[in-house]
Structure formats: C-alpha cells, structure tokens
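Hallway conversation turned thread

IA: we were arguing at lunch whether anyone had actually written out protein-tyrosine-phosphatase end to end. Turns out nobody had. So, for the record, here is the sequence (1248 residues) and right after it the structure tokens. Reply here if something looks off.
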Amino acid sequence: MELFVTTGGIAFRILLGFFLISNFQVPFVQSQPGPVGNLTVVTSTTSASLSWTTTAQSNVSYIVMVVEANKTSSTNSTSANVTGLIPATRYTFTVSAVAQDNQTVGSNAIIIKYTKPGPVGNLTVVTSTTSASLSWTTPAQSNVSYIVMVVEANKTSSTNSTSANVTGLIPATSYTFTVTAVAQDNQTVGSSATIIKYTIPDTVGNLTVMASTTSATLSWNPPNGGNVTYRVVVVDIDKIFWTNSSFINVTDLSPATSYTFIVTAVTQDNQTEGSNATITKYTMPDTVGNLTVMVSTTSASLSWSPSNGGIVTYRVEVDEIGRILWTNSSYINVMDLIPATYYTFSVTAVALDNQTEGSKVTMKPYTLPDTVGNLTFMASINSASLSWNPSNGGNVIYKVQVVDIGRILWTNSSSINVTDLFPATSYTFSVAAVALDNQTEGSNTTITRYTLPDTVGNLTFMASTTSASLSWNPPNGGNVTYRVQVVDIGRILWTNISSINVTDLTPATSYTFSVTAVALDNQTEGSNVTITQYTQPGTVGNLKVIVSNTSAAVFWNPPYGGNVTYKVMVWGNGEIFWTNSSSINVTDLFPATNYTFRVTAVTLDNQTEGISATITRYTLPNVIVNPTSVALSTSSISLNWNQPIGGSVTYKVYLLNNGTVVLTNMPSINVTGLMPATSYRFSVSAVAQDNKTEGNNVTMTQYTKPGPIGNLTVTASSTFALVSWNLLNGSSVTYRVMVVGTSKIFWTNSSSITVTDLIPATNYTFRVTAVALDNQTEGSSATIEQYTLPNVIVNPTSVALSTSSISLSWSPPYGGSVTYRVYLLNSGTVLLTNMPSINVTGLMPATSYRFSVSAVAQDNKTEGNNVTITQYTKPVKVEQLNTTTITETSILLSWHQVQGVNVSYKIIVLDQQSYISTFYTSTSFFNVTGLSSGTSFSFNVTALAADNSTEGYPNTITGCTNAAQVQNADCFGPDNNPVLNITWQPPSGSYSEINISISNTQGLYTAFPSNNFYTVYNLKYAANYTIRITTISCGEKSSDVVLNCKTGISSPPVPSGPLNLNVKVITYQTVTFVFKSFSNENGNIDAYAVIVTSDTGSTTPNNLSLTKTYTDYNNKNTDSYVTAIITPVSEEPTVIIGDGTAYYGYTNGVLAATKAYRIAVAAFTKLTLSGNRASNGNLIDTAKSYFSITQFSNTINIPENPAVIGGAVGGTLAALLILALLTAILFIYWKRRSKKLSSSGNTVPFNK
C-alpha cells in the first residue's frame, strides 16, 4: 500500500507491503498533500477571485470554501471565482489540496477578506458660502462607514452616517467632493461617488450708485473667496449686464426715473449665485431748458421747457427772499415781489423721491420799476425843471428823455434840471424808473411843455402925433407870436413880426405899451417888456418973434391934442424958457449975437417934444477948445469941449464914420447907438443960430467899450482847463484871460483858450476881459470858478477779507485834497471816505462785486475818472468733509455744497513726504485716484469763487488708502527641517508690517517692511498649513493672500527596541512575517527596505547595508544585505523573504536551511536610487534618501531541507522489524495528526 507522510512541509509517498503475522493485516496509507502556496484573494462587491500556487504534488485537486457564505467548490486549477457574495462583508476563504483519493486533504490556506462595499447612491451636495452639506444613500446590504474627501481643500473625514457637513471652505470656489464606502476592516473601499460643486459666492458689499441723467455707475466691494463674475440686473427695464470688475456703468437710462439694480456674484460655472444686493436709485432729472422770465412790477412769470425723462416736480427758488415754490407744470407765477428789485430765480427738476435733483438753471432779472407819479414841469427860457414822486420798490435810477432832441439824462434823485434848451420850443419829456441793472424799465410818464420864450430885446418906440411905431429884436429860440398891449386903452394887438404900428392915438398923450413873446401853444409867455411914451405934441402954429435989442416977444398958436407945456429955447445964450401959455417974452439977450428962438410943445413927461417952430438970428461962433472923449459904454461915447467965447452958438457934431450929424447946445454930447469895441472919429464945430454959420471943426478919435463876455464856461481836466466864451459882435477885439491868484495871463483872439500846468483837484478862478484894439479900452470882465478834475486813483488793490467783506485800497492821486466816492455797482450803493481805503461789509459769500472808485474835489461835485475794481468775497468754509469709498489707490471725498454762484473747489493732497498734488472740481465730491496703497493722506478742500483765485477757508481731513496685498507670495517647506519659508514681493504703496497667520497654530507672526520673507519654525513635518498673509497700514488690514503650504519631510521616527516581527510561515528557504507600519508624522512612508543579516551578534544595521545585495552576501562581501523593497499598502505590511523576486537592483534570494537570521526594516520618506552599478541596476542612494533603520529582530532559525529527511527514512526499510515498528509509530502519528488538522487551520503568508 502507499502512505503519504508530510514533515517539515515536504510530502513523502511510502509503499508498504504487509506481511501476515499472526493474522494481523497492516493497511496501506495514502500520504497527505502539502498546503497550497501564495493564496491571494481579490474581491469585488459580490464576488471574489482566488488564486494560489500548486503544492509539491501536482496531481491534486482543490477544495475552495467560503466559510461565512457556506459555499464550497472544487477545482483542478489554481484559481477560483466565488460569486453571490454580499458587499462590504467579511469572508474567510480557505483552499485545501485534495489527494487523488478525494479524501486525503492537505493543510488548508486561509485568508480573510472583505468584499468591496457598493458605491454610495444619490450623492447630493448643497453648498453655502463657506460650507457644504453632503448626503447620500447607503449601498445595498452594507454595514459600512464613509470617507468624505474635499480634494482641493485637502480635507478628509470619516463618518458612519449618510450625511456630512464640511466647513472652512472659501466662497465661490470649485470643490470636488468624493464619498467612499469603507468596509469594517477600514481598508476595503468601494467605488467613490464624486460630485463637483461651487460654494455660493458671498454677497457683494457696500453697493453704491452714482447716477447722472442717463447713466448710473454702480460700485461694490468684491466678496471674499474665489473668482466671480457679476450679474447686474436693471429690474425696471429688464436689462442684464455681466462684468468681471467691481463696478459698471449702466447707460441709456431715462432721466428722473427710479431704477432698481440687483447685483449678484456668480461663480465660474455661471450657475452658482450668491445672495442679491439690491439698491433703488433715481437718475438725475434733466436740466430744464429755455428758462424765460417775464417780469411785471410785483410779479414774475417763469416758464421753461419740461426736462426729458420721468415725471418730475419743479422747485422754484427766489434766493433773495428765501422763498421756495413747487409746481408740477412747466411754468409758475411768482407774486408779491417788490418793484425794481433784483431777484435770483432758479428752477430745479426734482425726481419723485423728492431727493434726486437735476442741475439748477438760474436767471437774475429785476422786476419792473413802478411808474413815477405826479410829474411836474417848471420851465424857464433855456431850461426845464422836472420833478416827480419816486416810484415804489427797490432802488432805481431815472431815465429822463427829451424826446424831441433824442437827449437822455440819468439821475438818482426824483428831480432834474434840463438845460441847454431853446426858448419857446415844445419839448416832450419822458421819465421812466430803471432798475439797477440799467436795463429793466418801468412804464414811462410823459409831459409836453414849451420853454418860456425869451424876452424881446431892444424895444424901441417911434411916435408921431397919432401913431406909434414899435420895434424890437426877436428873442432867441423857437417861433413865437407877439402880443402888443396898449395898456391905457386896453387895446391888444398880435403880430408875427418884430414890429408894429399903432394908430388912432391922441397927440401929446402918454401911452404904456407891453410886448410879450408867446409860444405857439398860445399859453406859454415870456417876460413882457414895457415902454411908456407920449405921442408927439402937434407943432405950434403961426410962430412969430418980435425982437428988440435985449428981448424978443415970441407968439404962437397952441397945437391940437393933450395938455402940453412949451419949451422956448434961445440959442445964443443957452437959455430955455418954459411956459404954459402960447407966448413968451425973452429978455437979457446979448447984443450982436444971433439968437434962435425955438418953441416946442412938450408933453407932460417933459421929454416928448413936438416939432419945434424956430425963428433965428445968428452971430458967428468961435472954435471950440479943449476937446476930450470918453468911452461910456459899449454903445456910447462922451464928447466934451469948452464953450467958445462969443455969442451963443450951437454945436454940430459929425460922426465921420457914417456921416451922421448931431447938434447940441452943450459943449459936450453923449453919442449913443454905437457898435462895441469900434473906433469912431468925430468932428465938432460951433454953429450960429442960423444953423448955417459954422466955425472951424475939431476932430476926435475914440473906441467904444467892448461888450461883456458872454456864456463863459470852463471844462476842466486834471491838469488843464478849456475856457470858452461867446465871441463879441462888433470890431475885432483881443481877450485877456487871467488865472486869479496866479501869475498866469493869456491873450487870444479866439473864443477859447486852454490853460495848462494846473494842479488836479484845485479850485481856480478864471477872469476874461475883452480889450479893444487900442489895448486900452476894456469891456466888463467875466469871472468863473472851477475845480480841476482830480486825478485817477493809482495802485488800486482789493482783498477778500472774509465771506462778507472786501477791503479796497489805493494810493491818493497827485493834486489837491480830495475825498473818495466808492460805488458798489452791483447794488448802486455809494460810499464816501476821506481815506485811501475802505472796508465794504454786508456782502454775500463767493460773489463777484464791482466797485467804481473816483476822487472828488472839495466842492463835492467835481469828480475824477473812476477806476473799476472787481473782487470776489471769500466762499464759506467747506463743511461736512468726509471720506467715503476707499480703495487701494483712491479715496472718494464728499462735502456739503458751498453757497455761491459757480463755486468750484481746490483739493490739495499731501502724502507723508509732503508731496503735493492739486485737483479742481465743480462738484461736491471728488475721487482722488492714483494714490499709493496703504498711505495716509491729508486732503485740504477749499472753496473757490468763480474767479478761480479767491479762496475760502480750507477744511482738512486725513484718510488712508487700503493696504495692498503682497505680490507673488509663495511658500516652501524644506526637507529635514520642520519650517515653512514664506516669501513675497512687497505690496505696492506703504505699509507698516505684514501679519502672517498659520492654520492649526496659535501663532500670529509679524514681518516688517525691511523683510520680504519669513520663516515659521516649530511646525510638524509633512503637514498641510493654510497661510494667510495680511498687509497692515494705518492700522487697517488688507484682504488676505491665502497660501496652501506643506512642510517638508524628514527621516521617519524609529520604533524603539528590536524589530517586532509577527512570523507567519518559515520554510527551509523562506520566512513570511508581518510588522507594524512606521509613523507618518515625518512624511508618508514611500517604501520599506528589508535587511537580512546572518550576523546574529549585530544589533543595528549600518547605512552601508542598504547598498548591499543578495549577490554581495553570497560572495561573502557582507553579512547584511537588502532582500526586498516594498511599498506599504496597509497598516501591517506582509513580507516574504526568499521568494526570488527582484526589486530594482536587489534580489530576494532564498535563505539557507538550518541557518539563523535576523531581520531589520528601513523606512523611507524619500527613496532615491542611483545607477552606480551597471550590472546590478539601481541601488539605494543613502545620501539622497531620507530613512530610518530599526534594530535587528530576534533570531529566526531556518529548518532543514526535507530531502535530507527522506534519505534517512529509506535506510530503515531494510529491516522489517524496524519497519513494523515504524509502521505502528506512523499509524499512531497519522491518527494524531488527522485529529489535529481537523481542529485547527494554518495561515498562509501573503504580500500585498
């Protein structure tokens, strides 16, 4: 029979022959198959694939059992597939070799393995901004736990529930979430369920809108987290815009319209949205157009073109009275105004929110002045004095227009004297009040009147006995008629010419004649000129003389007419006799002297004489002696001489210039009716009483006086005066002009002279005298006083002292003492001062004022040319200055709008180095851009008047731009040193320090501007850290720069003591064992090198052992060598030494039977191979690898080779006795062995 015996893992077949001894029969025994080798199991969710190596006996079959599933199957191959398993379930797989008798079973090989869990189902992820909630369904028929991984965040967690919450995520970031079911061995994992999901973006912050009429600029703070785009929805018009920046300009909007803007951050998947940020804003209304104002005296009607866009109301402001009116229409009537008053009307369109306003449109008219009242007229010959009641309302000036001659006069008072008019002329005067803008006129009041006619001149009377011929010089001026009144008899006559003959009068009767020039209105009369005169008496009739030697009786008949007296002249002795009777007796005559008796009827005025009746007797007269002449006036000359000796004579005076003869009884005569300033030649002779006998004549020459100077006027400038007068009628004269009180005397033949070298603002008296050509005969002098004009002020300057006052100053002009008249042209106000400076107060801020300054002489009338000064008052101080939107490179300033017209603003920016930048704006806000990040700036904001130079008081505010992030930040963890080296490029701008925070630590580290790197110490090896780098400036933080960093690795820590092995199987050539994995705290273990030594006395391998191979060991070059390099896949790696496999340049050669070995393990966090042996391939480079080596294990003894045992058994067969004994022993052994195998199994080592 055959018997199979196994010992030391070797199966032996023994053929036994049985001998019959005492009827005892020994059975034939089949030897047991050896155990299968290298059993491996690969599971899926519901099946397992088993494979193994055959036993030494090849002619066997195999029984495969799955204990928990109660499954058994047989196979002749070295593999099997078991199906119908439950996922995630622990199964014990056994494989046993069966001999050909199908009964004898070898030792079974056992492996315990979990089937893979099924995939989790229905994985869903719901994200928030910084977390994610995962849920899933449990795989079928599974008792599992789950591994939840967030790939990008390097987060891993385990859970036994079907949900998980992941926190600490970054908003708007894409994350890959995987969930894997893990069996209860915590090693067997199922298929992962994966979903990629974005976290919800954060809500945008600080959403603001700056609106214009047709556009709106939205800006916001970007949310924290990943990159996003922004969706901007204009709700009201259903418009959607997309942008990658944190601002957008929305155009094509309607003015004055409410719009709701929604801004939403959207992640890069264009699906995941953050919460909406919503803001509602009106666009600015459009500016009203075509604003017009129609004013009356107490109201103003405003109208305008409605602004484009939405519905608006209009705010109408009347600045000067602080009145605000509202209207929904495009017109309004403003009542209760004051006439002739300056008003500022502004119209602003206001949106329906009653806050959003368009630009203001302004007009500045005056109301119409009121009509002047009670216009009255007082006329003279050459002038008219007008007066009226002042118009109600504001200050006005009056325009007085002389319509007929187109003359316009202006006055501030309610009366005026209009000169240089023509007498007897009709003038229409129009008076209108004019506002201070010199444009706005009230209704005019008109009056038409004649000037008084001039008095008729040189009224003369030529009377006869029954008539009177009157003549006169026509007055200057317009056409007139003449009313001639014979007062005594109440007769009125009219004539258009300058003479009249009045008839039907009584001789020798006194009549008073009045002549008055009357204007063509037959109402306006000049002054009358009156002359009283008698008509001539009639001539006495029938004159008879009865003479004697000493007397003469004279008789006559009385003439017809009124009462008369009779003048009887005796030309001879010069006697005159008067009598009321019609006769007279003349006595005491000279003998031998011719006498002429003349009888004349004389009226009761003793002047008006009738025609004389004469009878003559003559003696020859002598020549006159001592003739003299004197110019009595402009039209008369007095001639005088001594009476000649002898009888009575008369004198005949000849005016040789024109042949006129004048007779006189006196040795003198006044010659009248002459021309002024004319040379006259007279011849005077004595004439006997016969009026024929004449003596020799005597000739005299004499000038009449020149006439008086007329219409003397002076027109003065500052240093000269033009003196002019009317030229005198008559012969030529020269004119002497004296400046009284000075040595200045001038002569001229013309009617004017210019006097130079005068002192400004000085009173001068000018005296002008006409002088005849004899340079002796002078007319009456005319004198006039006049101040020279003051000089123009010099060096005028103006300074805005405050918001309500302006200081004016100047240098006094050269010349006499002056005062100064300062006109505030804006309002018509007049100020007087004796000093060359003045402070004008009560003004409006930021307003342009025009001043006119002129010097006035001491007469307070004579005014020099003015100088105009324009100056703005200071604007008020900017208030409510704030910094609003602040970025890294800009700061938005805002302030309250300053009162004033066209006020602008100057912004001065000063940084820490006092660098100055200046900006200008007309709005009440300004975004200062181009600033350095993290820098403190001072902003001075000053209001500027419209002249862009007059500044108000500055207001200052300090602001700091946001700190910028560091640039190009990076981190590096060097090996063999548990630190992180962090580097960066400095942020733009300024900063005080950089803060560095590290996750999983309590540290906050600070770097200063001199360093662009920082090393963090005392960290863990191979650890992930989140680095947040924050720039600090002005005490504020920048947004974080986030780095995900990992420290380097180092040699792993070594377990203390000898290597602790769990030896599973030992054969004569191999050893199978399990050991605990090394700690990963210094980095993941990449590989293990198994070191074998036959030097049982050695405790710890040296590093050189890592470079020794099995070949080196066989060649006796080393006692220690590397037999295998394995990659860890579990917490307890299984190693088989001696299986012949190759690892890089190392061979896992068989061990020597009966020899003792010790084992050590080198763990590598970094394994570097070098190719320094061409024959052996790559070996471990100990200089470049990071590793630690355990101490050697306890000694392992390798058993004897089974072949040696088989030879010993064969020798015993020679002796039957020994064989029988052996058979009995073997039988007993077999029985015991079978019992032992049925009660326990044997584990087969494996290598994962």
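OS: looked through it. The two ends are 43 Å apart (CA to CA).
IA: good, adding that to the notes. Confidence is low (pLDDT under 50) at residues 1-29, 1172-1176, 1206-1210, 1234-1248.
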